[in-house]
Amino acid sequence: MAAGISITKCSRCPKPAILHQEYSGQHLCSHHLFRSIRKRVSKELRSQLLLPKNALHEDGSPFRILACISGGKDSAVLLDMLVDIIGKRRDVEIIAGCVDEGIDGYRAPSLECARKLAESLSIKFVTLSYSEMGYDDMDEVVGKMPIISGKHDEAKGLMPCSYCGVFRRQSLNALAEKTKADVMALGHNLDDMAQSILMNLQKGEIERSVRLAPHTSTPIEGLAPRIVPLRWIPEQEIHAYAYAKGLPIHHGDCPHANGAMRQQSRSIVASLEAQSPGARHGLLHALDQIRELHREARGDPHSEVNNCEICGEITSRKVCQSCTMKEWLAESA
Ligand code: SF4
Ligand SMILES: [Zn+2]
Ligand SMILES: [Zn+2]
């Protein structure tokens, strides 16, 4: 070791630390980081997913969890954790699913990482592309966006991610249906959650905030409820975990991500956390309390849903957003 360089030790053992948890004051080595993450994820999984001792269906088929993976670090850690925590149960089957948005140079390598990860964990891997769903590839959507926003007021100010988010949600629902999944697990981390909460609240959208996953206590009929077992784990810890474990992950960024409101929110959350460590946890605790108060006052946040006149999917509008966007794309062909 070069003179003058000191390595911080883990707060729980003599090994070198790989991460400093600012909000708890602890330094953790890779072993203790794994243990700490696993403990928090197991606890969260138990509270979001109430599995009976024997979760087999009446017909003898297993309880199926669709782990939505993207090739990125969050969903890689999600799948790795799920397999580690409940992968040995005979009454539970984990399937990995990946949506192909049709983004040149980005999706192919990330899809490969997702496939490799699923293979290495001996998990069945399924994919579904936007074109199979009847949407345009995202690269084409981006090309058509100026024409669409010229014609439709509702489309003004939409970002590529506004379209992609709607299409991905529908595609994941379709994957869940195809794989007969009982629940869908998503890799949202604590930073993602804090960003979403902030974005919704700054637009005054309480209803939208209380509808954020997990949905297991307020399921919507006909849809596999979404669970988010990593929601209390900061992004930096997930990154350190994925890196230390050598999970195959794609590091590239989507070329259409620039300018999204999430980027702004990302830097606001990061500086909030830097100024007062624990702020992200605070935002998520606040959401859980708002959700509880909202439920007491208004009941099930999903009660006002109906079926889309065109595709029959569940929506709060007459025609769902995905069908509306599909129409816009078709007329701009
Ligand atoms: S960054 Fe936006 S456009 Fe790119 S994959 Fe994500 S949601 Fe889709
Ligand atoms: Zn340690
Ligand atoms: Zn529809």
How are the elements arranged and paired?
Blueprint: E1 19-21, E2 26-28, H1 30-48, E3 63-68, H2 73-86, E4 92-100, H3 107-120, E5 124-129, H4 138-151, H5 160-178, E6 183-185, H6 190-202, H7 206-210, E7 226-227, H8 235-245, H9 261-275, H10 279-298, E8 306-307, E9 314-315, H11 321-331
Parallel strand pairs: 3-4, 3-6, 4-5, 6-7
Antiparallel strand pairs: 1-2, 8-9
Helix pairs in contact: 1-8, 2-8, 6-9, 6-10
The structure holds iron/sulfur cluster and zinc ion (ZN) (2 copies).
| End-to-end Cα distance | 62 Å
Radius of gyration: 21 Å
* Beta-strand residue fraction: 5-15%
Structural class: alpha/beta
Largest sheet, described in full? Answer: 5 strands, parallel
Question: What oligomeric state best describes the polypeptide chains here?
Answer: single chain
Q: Total strand count, please?
A: 9
Tell me the number of structural domains.
1
CATH architecture: 3-Layer(aba) Sandwich
Helix fraction bin? 40-55%
Task: Look at the structure and name the CATH superfamily.
Answer: HUPs
Hetero compounds:
iron/sulfur cluster, zinc ion
CATH topology: Rossmann fold
| Overall average residue pLDDT | 92
Order of helices and strands: EEHEHEHEHHEHHEHHHEEH
What does this structure look like?
The structure is a single chain. The chain has a single domain, classed as 3-Layer(aba) Sandwich (Rossmann fold), CATH 3.40.50.620. The N and C termini lie far apart (62 Å). The mean pLDDT is 92. Helix 2 (73-86) links the parallel strand 3 (63-68) and strand 4. The longest helix has 20 residues, at 279-298. The radius of gyration is 21 Å and the shape is globular. The protein has eleven helices and nine strands. The protein has helices at residues 30-48, 73-86, 107-120, 138-151, 160-178, 190-202, 206-210, 235-245, 261-275, 279-298, 321-331, and strands at 19-21, 26-28, 63-68, 92-100, 124-129, 183-185, 226-227, 306-307, 314-315. Helices cover 47% and strands 11% of the residues. Helix 1 (30-48) crosses helix 8 and helix 6 (190-202) crosses helix 9 (261-275). The chain has 333 residues and is of the alpha/beta class. A five-stranded parallel beta sheet has the order 5-4-3-6-7. The protein has a two-stranded antiparallel sheet with strand order 1-2. The chain has a two-stranded antiparallel sheet with strand order 8-9. The structure holds iron/sulfur cluster and zinc ion (2 copies).
